[in-house]
Design brief:
Layout lengths: L1 H23 L29 H21 L6 H24 L24 H19 L6 E4 L2 E4 L7 H21 L7 H37 L6 H16 L7 H24 L8 H19 L2 H7 L16 H31 L6 H6 L1 H6 L10 H7 L4 H36 L6 H25 L3
Helix pairs in contact: 1-2, 1-3, 2-3, 2-4, 3-4, 3-11, 4-9, 4-11, 5-6, 5-7, 6-7, 6-8, 7-8, 7-9, 8-9, 9-11, 15-16
């Protein structure tokens, strides 16, 4: 919970200082530009200076924070606290804002709002399937790959790769979380019209909420039935998985976000049905690749986000597109078979986001790993990061997945006792180091006194030097670093 809080706090500070300026500097949605000048990033409104619409910053911050929190779930149970704060700040301060500027602002080289858009159309991403979810999902994939799997997640039996499930502690909280997200999605998707007082925006907003609902429902049903069919084929008995149904619902929400206001209702159902299947495929692919995603954030956000951005090029209705871009004749490929420009723009946008995030975040997480700031200590991971980092276990009566690993070779209580013993040894060594530092400081102060005190201080210094040497040898013998 604290790590999710750090995601939001780091995102707030990063987006306040420079993130918003790089993303939107001196521009706003729907702004008309008379020139075709394209810029890499915004260069004004740093620290929100000269920004008059601060409510717009708050709305955009929620998108930036969403992109950052996607990563948190994938790294659960094995990442250090510092890593969360660093990546959330870096992502929302620079990586994500450049994607926003390129696709959503009038001066972006991929933007459909540009005076001279790409292929005469530009990339259309209405509420963030590409900008928000693919950016966060690709970052999560890179981070999970560099970080490595949780202890005991993957192992081999007779040459076969086996993935051990680490189930969540409460299916009820999963259900509650999905309903909260579903409700919040209406604010994201319908709120992306920005101004409801415009008649055409009211049409777009009502399309957004209806299509959001239908796609979520279709994704849920698709993932539920497809997983039941697969389990029946594999075990002979159909199992209706509530978790897969919930994740399919989220996949439907992610995939419809890109075109929720500019597609027909039947298309939103098709998008949701396919997204449920894409989620199952992506989840199984990660297991085969031995990439450990604790909450399936990567298939939900990355895979479904890519599908959502691509689907805009297939299902965008010309009349709805013109409500956003008057005079633009862009349409989905299903409406204009002989015109694939919008579909081409969507593919280019997807490749740009994947490439941009990879080029920046792969060396970033590689550096964190090299410095030892990414992965938690092995014993801390087995004991549980609640106990290791926070001194208490929130789930006092529940054996978490990583605790069950310890049960294979010994009781969890033994690991906890070993952990506390090591912490106590570290505290004792730190106290000794503090005592040595105080003595060295005393000698430094003594050496600065008048000459007639020098013999006495030299004598005291010699005695203290012997004591410090003994203390240093004792620390070295204890193996403390």
């Amino acid at each position: 919970m604290l790590k999710n809080l750090l995601d939001a706090c780091g995102a707030a500070l990063g987006f306040y200082t420079v993130g918003y300026a790089f993303a939107w500097g001196s521009s706003y949605p729907g702004m008309k530009v008379d020139n075709d000048e394209l810029t890499f990033a915004g260069l004004s409104n740093f620290f929100l200076s000269d920004l008059h619409q601060k409510a717009f910053w708050l709305f955009q911050f929620s998108f930036a924070a969403t992109s950052a929190t996607i990563v948190a779930g994938a790294l659960a149970e094995r990442s250090q606290m510092l890593a969360y704060l660093l990546y959330s700040t870096a992502l929302t301060a620079f990586v994500y804002p450049i994607v926003v500027h390129s696709i959503w602002t009038p001066n972006g080289f991929l933007s459909s709002f540009s005076a001279n858009p790409l292929l005469g159309i530009g990339v259309i991403d209405y509420a963030g399937s590409l900008v928000v979810h693919v950016t966060g999902g690709q970052t999560a994939l890179i981070a999970a790959h560099v970080l490595g799997a949780r202890k005991g997640r993957f192992h081999e039996i007779d040459g076969r790769r086996i993935a051990k499930d680490f189930p969540g502690h409460s299916i009820a909280l999963k259900m509650l979380g999905v309903f909260i997200l579903w409700f919040g999605w209406y604010g994201f998707n319908a709120g992306s019209v920005y101004y409801i007082t415009v008649k055409s925006n009211a049409v777009l907003a009502q399309n957004a909420v209806v299509n959001t609902t239908l796609s979520a429902a279709a994704g849920c049903i698709s993932a539920l039935l497809a997983k039941a069919w697969l389990s029946e084929r594999q075990t002979g008995e159909a199992t209706f998985s509530l978790t897969d149904a919930l994740w399919g619902c989220l996949s439907g929400l992610v995939s419809v976000t890109g075109g929720c206001a500019i597609i027909s209702s039947w298309a939103s159902i098709v998008i949701g049905l396919i997204s449920g299947l894409i989620y199952l495929w992506g989840s199984n692919l990660l297991v085969k690749m031995r990439v450990d995603d604790a909450v399936d954030a990567i298939p939900i956000h990355l895979c479904s986000g890519v599908w959502g951005a691509f689907s805009v090029g297939l299902f965008a209705v010309p009349e709805y597109v013109q409500l956003i871009h008057p005079g633009v004749t862009a349409a989905g490929w299903f409406y204009k078979i002989n015109d694939g420009r919008l579909l081409a723009c969507q593919v280019i946008g997807i490749l740009f986001v994947l490439g941009w995030v990879t080029v920046l975040m792969l060396p970033f997480f590689g550096l964190l790993h090299y410095l030892g700031w990414l992965r938690a200590d092995s014993l801390d991971e087995i004991v549980g990061l609640d106990i290791s980092y926070h001194g208490a276990n929130v789930l006092t009566n529940y054996n978490q997945g990583n605790i069950n690993i310890a049960d294979d070779n010994g009781s969890h209580d033994q690991y906890v006792a070993e952990h506390h013993q090591r912490r106590q040894q570290q505290r004792e060594q730190n106290q000794k180091r503090g005592s040595l530092r105080r003595r060295m400081l005393f000698l430094d102060l003594s050496s600065s006194k008048s000459d007639h005190h020098i013999p006495r201080q030299q004598q005291a210094g010699g005695e203290n030097a012997i004591e410090m040497e003994e203390g240093a040898n004792e620390i070295a013998c204890s193996g403390s670093v």
